[in-house]
């Protein structure tokens, strides 16, 4: 996302409504997308997760924290432990106090939480005209429409209709309630150069970062799905055993 002026953009997008006559209108329901993690047997697409993390790191992390994630969690995206150590080491974190009672900076470790862009909420508000950029760890769970809404919002920027007059410093978004949003379009074509060579279209970047944020909100989804499958299988087998036992017992009773 663009720097200082836009640092609170996503926060404002979730909190501010336009003041025009269209402000009271609700946004259309976001179109349903096909997500690999949907359904009882859904799983995460590791390639999409890694691309989404790249989008988050290069674009979104200038504004938004993922407070619930540690660097070590990134192994679930398919990174090796050495790769995670390398990712963590690129970040300077505050540690201490040392033997003299002073705090100090050191390279990040796998055991560290992924740091946010601001040291505290007050600093975040000061840098964003009073707006507090939200933590996006749970954003797909916190917004109605979930992943579909986040994707629609990121790709919903358009020129306003002729009858819509935008307020100063507002942008038209087809899927934001009221359609007027303070966040400029955060994604631009080829803004991110994917390591795997995937074309960096706005739709692709929005899709990938939505996958990443969905995983961040529910990293245990696959484990839960596997457990659910085992439970269903156990119940089916148990039902079969009880049915066979019932047939055997009742077969001894004359009719």
* Shape summary: extended
> What is the total domain count?
3
DSSP helical segment count:
8
Report the CATH architecture of the largest domain.
Answer: Orthogonal Bundle
SS-based class: mainly alpha
Count of DSSP E strands? 4
Q: What percent of the residues sit in helical stretches (DSSP H or I)?
A: 25-40%
Report the oligomer. single chain
* Mean pLDDT level: 85
Radius of gyration: 24 Å
The CATH superfamily title of the largest domain: Cytochrome c-like domain
What is the CATH C level class of the largest domain, in words? Mainly Alpha
Give the biggest beta sheet. Answer: 2 strands, antiparallel
CATH topology of the largest domain, by name, is Cytochrome Bc1 Complex, Chain D, domain 2
Biggest sheet, spatial arrangement of strands: 1-2
Distance between the termini: 78 Å
Unreliable runs, pLDDT <50, ≥5 residues?
Answer: 1-24
Percent in strands:
under 5%
Order of helices and strands: HHHEEHHHEEHH
Would you write up a description of this structure?
With 255 residues, this protein is mainly α. The protein has three domains: 4-69 and 117-219, Cytochrome c-like domain (Cytochrome Bc1 Complex, Chain D, domain 2, Orthogonal Bundle); 77-113, no CATH class; 221-255. The chain contains eight helices and four strands; from the N terminus they run αααββαααββαα. The strands form two sheets. Strands 1-2 form a two-stranded antiparallel ribbon. It has a two-stranded antiparallel ribbon with strand order 3-4. A hairpin with an 8-residue loop joins strand 1 (92-95) and strand 2 (104-107). Helix 2 packs across helix 7 and helix 6 (146-155) packs antiparallel against helix 7. It starts with 8 loop residues before the first helix and ends with a helix. Mean pLDDT is 85; it is low at 1-24.
